[in-house]
């Protein structure tokens, strides 16, 4: 009897709430645009590319605008200077520069009368002895197929940082949440890595896999940590979004801040065909 007595009241309350629904429009200001720099140099043959764009409004569904007509140079610690040429809108390529392990490189970008600089270096990198594959059955967390394993010695001496890139048939596996794989030698200094399983996959019979190990700087490692944290920052208990660090610095005090990263690395690679 109690159930029947209160049911009409609940229905009326529900109908009343449904009828009081308002649409609230929030006006989010666009904010000032910032220069975005994406550049990388390695010890492999060039050319090396620097990509320039600007930030876009938060709710924009358009591609970020490319920055054209900039003056872009890369100079090493021996004074060798390369003027980059714009090969397509917002993409600038080196001409003669070749990165070397142990050298330091300074990027300079001048656009709209403002100059921005960034610096990086190329660190030593260990060789990859070999790659292997292990077959995994399907589980709740992964698909069935072949997964790559890595064999090689980490270089003695603490302070090394690495990023591993995996390619399937010459296509980089670059899902930012699944395939961004980086680590340091805090707990494996000088050790031999036997069968380190790499997360990207699975691979199928007939695929060709290439693995690259990049020796990155400590600053670049910290940048990747922040980047991954922001990309995984969702759900009920997500923390407020914040800007990721940048090594792009404006030379003049009245210039708008820039964002992005200029990094360098030595690279070792190995290829394997999946049986």
Q: How does this model look, in words?
A:
With 275 residues, the chain is mainly β. The chain has a domain at 35-124 and 245-267: Immunoglobulin-like, CATH 2.60.40. It is built from 2 helices and 17 strands. A hairpin with a 2-residue loop joins strand 7 and strand 8.
Q: How are the secondary structure elements laid out?
A:
Elements lengths: L1 H18 L15 E8 L6 E6 L16 E6 L4 E3 L1 E4 L2 E3 L10 E8 L2 E8 L8 E7 L8 E9 L7 E8 L2 E2 L8 E4 L7 E6 L10 E9 L1 H14 L17 E2 L8 E15 L2
Parallel strand pairs: 1-17
Antiparallel strand pairs: 1-2, 2-6, 3-4, 3-7, 5-6, 7-8, 8-16, 9-10, 10-14, 11-12, 11-13, 11-15, 15-17
Helicity range: 10-25%
- Broad CATH class of one domain: Mainly Beta
From the spread of the alpha carbons, the general shape counts as globular
Structural class: mainly beta
| Major sheet | 9 strands, mixed
Count of DSSP-assigned helices: 2
List keywords for this structure.
nine-stranded mixed sheet; globular; disordered N terminus; five-stranded antiparallel sheet
Concise synopsis of the structure shown:
This protein is mostly beta strands. It has helices at 2-19, 218-231; strands spanning 35-42, 49-54, 71-76, 81-83, 85-88, 91-93, 104-111, 114-121, 130-136, 145-153, 161-168, 171-172, 181-184, 192-197, 208-216, 249-250, 259-273.
